[in-house]
Structure formats: C-alpha cells, structure tokens
User: Which sequence fits this backbone?
C-alpha cells in the first residue's frame, strides 16, 4: 500500500504570533492535565499584575499597531501588524505584503483560544511554575504608563524575559525574551494603541470571505484518547525539553484530516508539533534549507517563528516554534529522528501556510 506524501510550501510570517507575544490568554474551562500554580517563589505583586494581564483580553477592547522581531545567527526578522481586538468576538491581525509574502488577514475567534488540556489553569500558572516573577518599576510604552515584570529561570544570573503591562488595563504592551547571555532573541511591542474605543469594530474584525479561515483542528483530544493514539504509534509526548508542557491537542478535519496538532508551552516559549502519516518530498521544500540539528538532518525555514520539517518511519513532523535556538534543538532531539522517507506530493502542501498562520500554543 502506497503511503501518502507531504509537501511543505512557503509559510507566511504570522499575525497570531504577534498576539501570543503581547497578551496572556484567560483561563480555560476544560479538563485534563493539571498545572501547578506558584510552584516557584515569586513576588506577590508580580503575580497580581500577571493575573490582571491574563484577564485583560476578556474585558478590554483595543486596536493598534505592533511590531514583532526575532534575532538569530542568520540575522533578524521583523514584521509590523495592525491588530483589532474585541472581547467575546476575537482578534483580527492584518500584516502588509512583503517581498517574500503577500498581505495576510487572520481572525482568531474568542472561543477558539482556549487550551484543551490545562484543566482550568491559565498562562499565569505555566509561567509561575517555571519562572520566578518580580517587579521592576514602571516605564512608558506607546505613550501609556506600564508596570515592568521580570521572569527569571531558577538559578539563572539574568532574566529570561521582561513584560510591560499597561497600568490602566493590564494588557501586555511589550515583551522581550533573552538568551542565556542576556541578548534579546525575540521582542514585540505596541507602537500605537487605542483602548476602549467607542467606534464599531465590526468592519475591522470581520475577515473578507476570500481570506476567511476555517477551523483546521476542531476536535480536541482528551488524555485517554491521546494514550490510545500513542498505543497505535503516534508520539504525542506529554512534555518536551527543556520544560515545555503539552497544553493542547487536536485532530485535523476536512482538508487537514489525519493531521495531529500538539501545542506546548512553559508560559514563555511556544512550540507546535504537527504529526501526519506519510512521506516527504524534500525537493519541494520551497524556501527551506537542509541543516543539521543535534546530529539530525532536518529542513529549516528561518524567521518568526522558526519552522522545521522532517520525516521519520512513515510520519512527517513539522515544528513551528516561538522559542530560542537551544529550545528548538532540544525539541528536535526529543522527537523521532529523520529517516529517508521520500515520495510524491500530497495533502499538507500549500495548506501549511494556514497551518502556520494558526500557530497558537493554546489551541
């Protein structure tokens, strides 16, 4: 029986990534894997600020302009996007056309952002279970007063990240993530923002029919079903190194039937792993380059976020990551290594543009 084969096409730099960089998602009402809260010692004032930030998107309307940037050995990547958000409706991100990508308009529905496996916990729970949080005074972002909160890994000499939280609403106005040497690896911020506008946001929030995006993974996978899938040969690990936890698992539908989307986070880094049965035709990996990570040959596309793909024993793995180079290497090293699976083109193909455009560690 001939195995289906998978082609990976170009993937646009993403609007949703900007959203993940700039606000924390509110609690989920689902059931599943529990997350320890306040497992590390943190400043109570910092925890209160983050708790407020976690709830802010559920009660604050805003529109503004954001930038998202990433730095790596290959250079820097940046994008400026327009963002409109309304509680209960969702968020629309519009990015301009660039030399390599067309203009994109993506809508994230308010009811589509809840993780399936956090068991009522929030991003705050993840962050405070892996980082110590402390306050660091105040600053100004886009003309608004902000409280600065620092996240530090246990035993580290320098911060892992800083967040600038709007003093009036709690919204995350700016974020910087650092490597072990203290250098910025990812940054995002509002350069302009208007909060609680009286005008009607409907025109800006609704996507045109020709760019409307269907739900790619409508069906959440519960822990019992995940275990049955593992028994049948799917990987679906509960954790990935260094400290990433599985927070959401979904099956594909329609054109994406047969694809499993696994989302991991430690509250700061975000990694999506896609598993699909089939083979990979490397010659059609447009804009990807062959590279070796942890002794494994994979295909990489640099940018925001990083994208990697390889095939192993009849399964194609795609990793989309808003994380450090070291974390991405740890993830690749923890998943099955590549084998020589090649073949003709099949399903994922151009659809992975949308796969990546829905990149969201919370489903």
Assistant:
């Amino acid at each position: 029986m001939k195995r289906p084969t998978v082609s990976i096409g170009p993937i646009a730099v993403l609007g949703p990534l900007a959203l993940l960089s700039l606000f924390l998602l509110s609690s989920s009402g689902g059931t599943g894997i529990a997350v320890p809260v306040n497992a590390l010692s943190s400043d109570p004032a910092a925890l209160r600020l983050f708790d407020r930030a976690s709830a802010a998107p559920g009660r604050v309307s805003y529109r503004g302009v954001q930038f998202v940037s990433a730095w790596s050995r290959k250079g820097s990547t940046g994008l400026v996007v327009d963002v409109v958000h309304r509680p209960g409706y969702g968020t629309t991100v519009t990015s301009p056309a660039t030399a390599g990508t067309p203009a994109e308009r993506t809508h994230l529905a308010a009811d589509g952002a809840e993780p399936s496996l956090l068991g009522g916990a929030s991003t705050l729970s993840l962050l405070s279970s892996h980082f110590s949080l402390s306050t660091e005074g105040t600053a100004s972002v886009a003309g608004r007063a902000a409280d600065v909160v620092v996240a530090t890994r246990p035993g580290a000499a320098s911060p892992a990240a800083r967040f600038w939280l709007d003093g009036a609403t709690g919204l995350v106005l700016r974020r910087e993530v650092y490597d072990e040497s203290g250098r910025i690896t990812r940054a995002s911020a509002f350069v302009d923002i208007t909060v609680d506008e009286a005008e009607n946001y409907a025109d800006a929030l609704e996507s045109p029919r020709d760019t409307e995006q269907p739900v790619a993974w409508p069906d959440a996978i519960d822990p019992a079903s995940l275990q049955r899938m593992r028994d049948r040969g799917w990987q679906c690990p509960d954790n990935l190194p260094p400290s990433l936890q599985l927070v959401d698992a979904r099956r594909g539908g329609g054109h994406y039937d047969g694809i499993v989307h696994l989302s991991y986070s430690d509250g700061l880094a975000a990694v999506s792993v896609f598993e699909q049965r089939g083979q990979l035709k490397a010659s059609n990996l447009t804009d990807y380059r062959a590279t070796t990570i942890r002794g494994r040959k994979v295909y990489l596309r640099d940018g925001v976020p990083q994208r990697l793909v390889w095939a192993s024993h009849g399964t194609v793995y795609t990793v989309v990551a808003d994380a450090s180079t070291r974390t991405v290497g740890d993830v690749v090293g923890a998943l099955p290594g590549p084998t020589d699976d090649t073949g003709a083109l099949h399903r994922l193909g151009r659809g992975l543009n949308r796969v990546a455009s829905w990149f969201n560690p919370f489903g």
